[in-house]
Amino acid sequence: MNSKLILIIDDEEPIQKVVRLSLKLEANWQIICASSGLEGIDLAEHHHPDAILLDVMMPEIDGINTFERLNKNVDTQHIPVILLTAKTGTAEKRLFQKIGVTGVITKPFDPLTLASQIAKLLQWTL
């Protein structure tokens, strides 16, 4: 099986830990974590992950601005981005579609099926 490298950008360490454990156990993917948008952009430029899981609500630079910066960067614009968010209102959903994220996974998510949800959005096989 082809191991994937996933970048998690989330300012909450407990979320990072749950996602890391979930993806490692369910899919045996390699995980790197960033606690801010700027750190995430730097890691994406240097490690070229297969996908990015991006929190929407973060201090300093939020997930939407992080996504826009990733999308404008030649080194990172090809990387699929899935938002992890509790914001699932109609206005937010329209915004997420408009900016062109690959998908959205709602928090709280089920850690036992997270890798399957990601694989489905990215059309990967587990």
From TrEMBL:
Signal peptide residue numbers: none
Classification via InterPro entries: Bact_response_regulator, CheY-like_superfamily, Sig_transdc_resp-reg_receiver
SUPFAM superfamilies recorded: CheY-like
One matching Pfam family: Response_reg
Keyword Translocase among UniProt keywords: no
Chain positions with 4-aspartylphosphate modification: 55
Superkingdom of the source species: Bacteria
Keywords: Phosphoprotein
Name of the protein this chain belongs to: Response regulator
Species of the source: Leptothoe kymatousa TAU-MAC 1615
Lineage, broadest ranks: Bacteria, Bacillati, Cyanobacteriota, Cyanophyceae, Nodosilineales
